[in-house]
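Sample A.
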Amino acid sequence: MPTSIESLFRPDRYPLSSKYDPRWIVDLEMGPNPLWQLEDLLTEMRLRPGQRVLDLGCGKGATSVFLARELGVEVVAFDLWVSEAELRTNLEAAGVAAQVTPVHGTVLDLPFGDGEFDAILSVDAFEYFGTDVHLLPRLLRVLKPAGSLGMSTPALREDPYEAAPPVCVTDLFGWEVAAWHSPGWWARHWTLSGMLDDVTARMQEGGSEDWLIWSRSLEQDQDSPVTRMLEDMGAGIGFALVTGTKTTDVAHSTVKRASSTVIRPAAASIATASTQRAGCSGSPASAIATSSRRRRSASVRLGP
């Protein structure tokens, strides 16, 4: 079923994201529509105009532009793979250069002061560094006590460490799939840090459909390997949306979080198709994922 670029205009589902020209979003794309993920994620967070926000793994800046325009916050656009010069050009073109500061760097060595940010957001990047148990202490250092942390990340409904990932997914994305954890895994991972309260984690409702619409709108071949994989997987794949609040009481946080972690199922029914364990139809082992996740490749590195 062919889908044009106009299908990315979805005001009923994403009213804020639909303010932006889909062609502009595609020009800055480094993965499935980041504004859709961000708009949904923000429903779990309480950001106010004037707050200072770290956009971690901001890519070419679409999410930073959105945060500045729609929320009136001050943003630091932080990325390893996109230069400050390219980011600055994109931000100036969008008219938000006064609100958004581009910074090139690695999450392993954040060049910011303690408690500098009111919130940290990360869209479609956390899977590349957030599985490290040493990451949260580094990251939360720059977040104020009671500050908000939120992220979206590709996810399998059945965690890859609990069930063998479908062949149609691993054929396309290889080792990356090991980090496509379920919401439950992320909730437990964050809770065990002892540094976050009120952790929530859920599969984004309709996330698989969103990804499929995005893939169809970008692919020249409407029967591409990525599109076929998404069609076969259905609700078994999508995005995990995870949020938490930095604790103000480290000494007692572990006890508190045992009762404050919430894993929220999506409202839509949970698919348990047999293809998840046995593999999916029509996905050749040699297929290479391209435009639906261009940002991430085997050359990904976490630092210099």
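Sample B.
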Amino acid sequence: MKKYIINILLLILIGVPCRARATIISMSQLDMKADGITLNTKEIQQAIDSIGLNGGGVLYFPPGKYLTGALKLCDNLTIELSSGAELIFSDDFSHYLPFVEMRFEGVMMKSFCPLLYACDKQNITIKGKGTLNGQGRKWWEEALRIRSLVANDEKFELNHYQVMWKDSNQEEMLYADNEKNFYPTLKRCFFRPPFIQFLRCENVTIKDITIINSPFWTINPELCQNILIDGVTIINPKSPNTDGINPSSCKDVRITNCAISVGDDCIAIKSGRDAQARRIGFSCENILISNCIMHSGHGGVVIGSEMSAGVRNVLISNCVFDGTDRGIRIKSRYGRGGVVEGIIASNLVMRNISKEAIIVDLYYGGIKDTIDFLQEKIPVVRNININSVVGYDINQAILIRGIKQSMVSDVTFSNLNLQSKYDKILDFCKNIRFNQVYINDVLQ
């Protein structure tokens, strides 16, 4: 027996190599200035690369203001920001070059590097009581300027970055893969980077940090698995497309204990846009959202509109929506395709909702009559369960609107008590059930 045990121990020692002690690097050890003025991209990136070469470790930011450009993260990395530490991202667009593979509004392309970026990595944590500041204003202003020129069909000279984008992408393929409603966006040739984008990564944690002033979507895992976002505060002012947390084509995602106030949707679950996303075929599923507070935002928890690869198995519970335009929102349109199903929302409180408390809309953005309806382009929404919701100061309590080719089906409302200016609108839907639902004290 003794010999047997010794042999087993030898096999374990031979088969499992000893792991070196994790590298720990503090920014205070490096020759850099934490004054918020001096650019430290090179020093920070070198520290990350060193940790990667050593198999992983911790990059620690003590109190101070650290100015940087885009940072590319490595495997087995923990970034920790202490209380009083602020990682400030440059508003010089050139600091987000060269272009990288990324996803913009559900479309794979090459464009500006996200501020914090990881591609095909695993085991990454960003945590601490410090702040990430995206300094997004110049990005917002340039995006709005170009958007206005395209909307007004004005001729304009492309800037340096727009020329780079055209040279880096196959425009013909992008136009072929997308519906016409996305053409004006493609014509801009200018695609702001998300603040944090993980692309095809596994085992990611973002915990306790504060994130402000994102150039575009704030936390955006794409094609990832096993994501935890816990205790995060996100604050963006009224600004274009500055969504809070947007998991897209991800599996096994937990979003808990977060406070979000942004310029667009607070949390939006997606799976890519149109033909390209259907071809990739990576749905978004097994999503848990709990104990979150949403303030300013177009929607509290939203599914879509980029949902072409499907969204399923979503649980939303114990959340407060206070001041958002809408509470729960599912949105899509003809052209997307995809199936949304298995959505449960429970124990919600809503107040000061300027539009709909609960909306399921397959007419998002409008749709023109056509005889050329293709099955793969028709979105499907079914099997939704919403229960135990209290709300007041609401404009519209409930709106469900399908399309002729796809009726919203099998939606159950239970134990709702809503005070609103308007009650409910049901259009192109079937099997809609109301159990103990009161709108303005009237049983539905």
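B remarks: Confidence is low (pLDDT under 50) at residues 1-20. The first helix runs from residue 2 to 15.
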